[in-house]
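[scheduler] slot 2 assigned
[scheduler] job type: sequence-to-structure, two independent chains
[scheduler] chain ordering preserved from manifest
[runner] begin chain α
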Amino acid sequence: MKVTHLFLHDDLNFNKPLFLLLNGPDFANDDLQNIFVTTCPRVYDALKKYGDNIYLTQKKGADIFNSYGMQTDWIVVHALNCHRKDVLRIKKNIAKKIIWRTWGHDLIDYASYTKYPKKLIEPIYNYWYVRKVRRFWGIGLGFKYDLLLIRRLFGNMNTFLLPYRNPDPSIYKDLDLSQKESGETRIMVGHSGCPILNHVAILNALSAYKNENLKICLILSYGCDQAYHDEVTQCAFDLFGKEKVEIIEDYMELKQYIAYLNTIDVAIFDVAGSAALGNVTKLLHLKKKLFFKRNSFFDDVMHRENIDFGYTDEIGKISYSSLIKPMENVENALHFTSFLDDSKHATKLWKQLFCKLESGENLGKSKI
């Protein structure tokens, strides 16, 4: 069985661990051939040293699916980074071979972002887009609650969990998880340079505490163009001064990144969808205080799991002591992230998928 994976997003945080996982000994099977195709030169250059089954393509949009779909049994697309009009052009016989492993930025309600006059035709456009997606064999989720967004956008489909890496419980065990007794409070704004995280608005709200002993931490190593990077950086410098701002611009390996997250006291994600999921689960496992957008995806999830958090629209209005107050109900957060203690979590679920693809069975619909 030949499975072609499409890496359409210029990212190594997720693409690299999956590439290593599926090229590892657990998937050394003569009956299974995993091929990787990317449109991103940086991803290709970084991964080719770990395996000779990755290829760089100049094809774009629907041409990628229609071309490679004729040469493979199955396609797994990791983040559907193409225009919806390109999805509409995917041939029906190819669509039924597609497994879409969604990323947080994939699950957007386009109607809420579309402006006039395009808003007038959005329902028609979206109708055909949804019809094509529903022809896909299934949708892989990074997180069980992504199912809430899938159902809202596409109805009931064949859905299943597909994590990208096996957790390494030893990474967390080796960290000092005790609360800091003194020193500056480190506040992380977003997890990338993506504009949907509303960095500037959050920085302005946080400026109410600029005279406190704090450090603003901005991770701008991916997700933004230079203009937005410069805008966010300058805003932070103007509001807090360079000495109170820390900007991360280089990619970190997982162990290094988790150690970095362990230095954070408060993390803020002013986003409506499920972007930042990997960061959120790690931060919860590290017992960090989190703030989310009101009426957002994470607002719903945190209430379902009874996990303590704050709202981003309260920042600047509540006292500084309330802002930095440690998380309560820590045991709920640890229960929610207990999968991080399973060193074979991802391997089990990918093997289950490949077995079902080989047998022609559906994995069934996920449940919450």
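[runner] end chain α
[runner] begin chain β
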Amino acid sequence: MKKGYFMTKKCLLSFCFLFSFCASIFCVSYSEKSWRILEQAQVCFDSGNYGDALKFAREASVSRKNETENEFNVLDKAISPAQVRKAGDEFSAVLKVLKEREQKEAADIIEKYLKLYGNSYYKDSIHNMLDWLKERNVYPEADYLTGKIYQVEGEYAQSLSFFERAYSEKDYLDISDMQYEILYSIGFIAKINGDLEKFEKTLLLILNNDEFFKNELLKKSITKAISDDKNENVDRIFLLYRADSKYSLMALSELGDLYETRKESKKALECSSLAAVESFAHILTAIEQRNSQFKYTSLENFFEECKKYEEILIWSQKNNVWSIFYQLAKRAGANGNIIFAQTLYSVMANSIPDSYYRSLSAGQLSD
């Protein structure tokens, strides 16, 4: 129980490293007092001062509500005059009139949210933005940080409540993709609580936005190549198939582990194979950006090339990439694809960058 708990915390911390860019959400609205208060809360959290972090997170939520009410009132008043109404509903026309009338505050509000969410999010309608703004009296980033505070203090019920609240408010995130960090947090609390049904549902919710996971033909093609059980298919699947989704790797790995414990070997293999292809594609892109002359010819030459770049090795370790390849061999073997599994073990024993998985793979080779 304890081991699983610490592994879960390690996985979650690893994902939060991936999402470190999300700290940049705090720099999309410099003028907002709520942003500055939430930044204070984050600083306190990072330094282990959880009492002050909680206080500032609550203050940030109140401040955001007040700011939003003010923005709604400013915008509602600015578009009420007949001259503005005659301009129509499209942003370009409304902005033109507002600037002519020197309604700078209202124009700045519109442009701020267009920059954050884009014109299409509001269907190019000032009234859609106004309706949305009327409901934007929540601060999901503050709720998420509050959940993390309760989590580190071991109050998982409270933590889960705030994570779920933050996810329900995802339409108001300053950066939409932060919803994946929130979902992972919900999922891992479910795992700690032993609620594996909720854990699975949350992982599937993350993967619901992965076009490759939803591509049944792609998944069947990859697993068929493995099931054909030929030596050459170890290299061929990475030559033939490409898939790269930013937030799926941990979900695929965890889901594969879950299916393995349930003895659902085909589903586990499917998750491992897609995770391997996605991690390979992501690293290959990074290699090609650094070495435009590199051409993939075999998995062995790919592993050898990985060794040349420290940042790729760091990313791969943080994302458990070498474990993903090892699990692929292990699950292929469990599925009866012994030739494929032994060939992959052999390649890893000779060239995978991580010494632990080189040794582990060598130990799996038949005499």
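[runner] end chain β
[qc] chain β: The two ends are 36 Å apart (CA to CA).
[scheduler] slot 2 released
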